[in-house]
Design goal:
TIM Barrel; 378 residues; alpha/beta
């Protein structure tokens, strides 16, 4: 391909992003800020100007055509109980303060319609995603309160098992979802909070898809058939997601994109010494999108970069400015503008709208659940 052709695809991609902004499923800037400054002071990471230590700042968000962002209010799975609740509240506070700090750039969105309104006003629709059910400390009242504070998805687990759900990175626990775990999913459906199945075990994925009455998301996961790691989505689950109406938001974590990177990372440190680590590439990310399209269909693909939650980067997707380069690659592969618009954000907004409709219907007949874990999980 000539450089003129490549420039043409890039120009077309930038133009398309103006019509269909990216709605990304997962960005860890709120935790990256905490790492830079325990006081979480924005002056220590003033993203109004370039911040080289980060993958995210306002100039690069604009360059990348980002119109909507689920900001992760991540709390490590090593924090449990009241500490997890407190730290999640602190992370939600970061997102709300960020919107107040830069009101000309960010606007809160608690629904698909609000996200579209904020984007039409030329701002970045800011949504909140909780990363790990440990944040609710086995309390459905805490879940409801987090929803009231703006959280619009919850990843059922992070990397460690809960009493009510198994994680992908942990050993076998309850074997998927416990009875209380099923009640969590039902209550999320009633609230209109998206059930996020990134980080959970295949059994938890299947249980959640069996129980849920609304479409689910994977906020930052890729295809297991292309890169065989526990954090990716098996083909049988991709087929279930298609039937459910959900969306898998392909992530840019090198060890979830490239099998060579995953295999290298799995070697003992002594074996890695002196070797040049392999790299994951933008083209391989597009391979995951191709695969999910083949198995689940174009209506079930999104993007969840996991920027500022990763230490390694995919070559060609180093920060939030790079989304148009992925769009250009999809154009080269023959994706229509309409299909790319679905991937960039239309699919996840449709999932939100569908989940909101389910919630409106359920709230007519179902009261807030008062079930406790000790009542149902013996």
């Amino acid at each position: 391909m000539s450089s003129v052709d490549a420039q043409d695809f890039t120009a077309r991609a930038v133009a398309l992003h103006k019509q269909a902004p990216v709605v990304d499923g997962h960005n860890d800037y709120p935790w990256a800020l905490r790492d830079l400054d325990p006081g979480k002071d924005f002056s220590k990471a003033d993203i109004a100007k370039p911040v080289p230590k980060l993958m995210t700042d306002i100039p690069r968000l604009k360059q990348g055509g980002v119109g909507g962002q689920f900001w992760s209010v991540y709390t490590p799975g090593t924090m449990m109980g009241q500490e997890a609740v407190r730290v999640t509240l602190e992370q939600i506070d970061v997102v709300h303060r960020m919107m107040r700090q830069w009101p000309e750039t960010f606007g809160f969105a608690g629904s698909a319609a609000e996200a579209e309104r904020v984007m039409k006003a030329g701002k970045i629709a800011s949504l909140i995603g909780m990363e790990g059910g440990h944040s609710i400390d086995n309390s459905l009242a805490a879940l409801r309160t987090f929803y009231a504070l703006g959280a619009r998805y919850m990843t059922l687990t992070h990397n460690v098992n809960l009493r009510w759900a198994d994680a992908a990175a942990d050993k076998l626990g309850v074997g998927g979802l416990s009875k209380f775990g099923e009640e969590v999913v039902r209550e999320m459906n009633r609230l209109g909070m998206l059930v996020d199945l990134s980080h959970v075990s295949p059994a938890t994925m299947e249980d959640a898809l069996r129980v849920t009455e609304a479409p689910v998301i994977f906020s930052h996961s890729s295809a297991r058939a292309i890169c065989n790691v526990p954090r990716n989505v098996p083909d049988n689950v991709l087929q279930m997601v298609a039937k459910n109406g959900g969306v898998v938001m392909v992530t840019f974590v090198p060890g979830f994109i490239s099998q060579a990177v995953a295999d290298f990372d799995a070697k003992p440190e002594a074996e890695r010494k002196g070797l040049t680590p392999p790299k994951a590439t933008l083209s391989q990310v597009a391979d995951h999108i191709d695969h999910i399209r083949k198995v689940a269909g174009i209506d079930h693909i999104g993007i969840g970069g996991d920027f500022d939650g990763i230490t390694q980067v995919v070559e060609g997707l180093e920060d939030v400015s790079k989304y148009p380069d992925l769009t250009a690659e999809l154009m080269k592969r023959g994706y229509s503008d309409g299909d790319i618009k679905k991937i960039l954000g239309q699919n996840v907004l449709r999932v939100m709208r569908d989940a909101e409709k389910v919630a409106a219907s359920l709230q007519k007949t179902r009261q807030p659940s008062t079930v406790t874990i000790d009542q149902v999980d013996k």
